[in-house]
Amino acid sequence: MAPRNKRxxxxxxxxxxxxxxxxxxxxxxxxxxxxxGEANQGRRERRAWLAWLQETARxxxxxxxxxxxxxxxxxxxxxxxxxxxxxxxxxxxxxxxxQLGGGRGALNLVREQLDSQWDDRLxxxxxxxxxxxxxxxxxxxxxxxxxRPGNAAVLITAGRVALKARLxxxxxxxxxxxxxxxxxxxxxxxxxxxxxxxxDSSKAMSAFDRRMAQLEG
Length: 217
Hints:
3 domains; elongated
């Protein structure tokens, strides 16, 4: 009855958000952007597509990961091009792929994105990959560390992947190196857990105390 009424259009979008009807909201986004402008609707569009990706990855009724992974890949083809270049969007999508057994595709996607634009939200995706040997993932991470020595995101990810490979000494080295970075609280938490698992309660408590001091700061 009133297709150009902005108030009705905006209210409809709000209702769709409240009902978590992401598919319809994403289909509505071109009209919303024409009515209110790209900048005004950018956050809503990004939020809707992220939610739809997550909903698809965790969709009930699909008992096997292969089915959900196929649905996720189909949906990714429909994501607007500008969002496919958004590091946070790529990280979420690649993370879901990895969780559903698509580790090789997730790794390739992360590498391609980092080659064009580095973003610290992407390396942690490698922690979720279980269908590629941890040793192979460590080679990739160590290459990134040569290019970006001291990068906290890569160091912490490398430490967690080293734990999967049961390389306790390497994991400790990565976490200790990261402890001197801006993300030291996270690295110290990992160190405390590692020391405790290795039976060194004194070092574990020391790392925990250092972490508490960082958090208080």
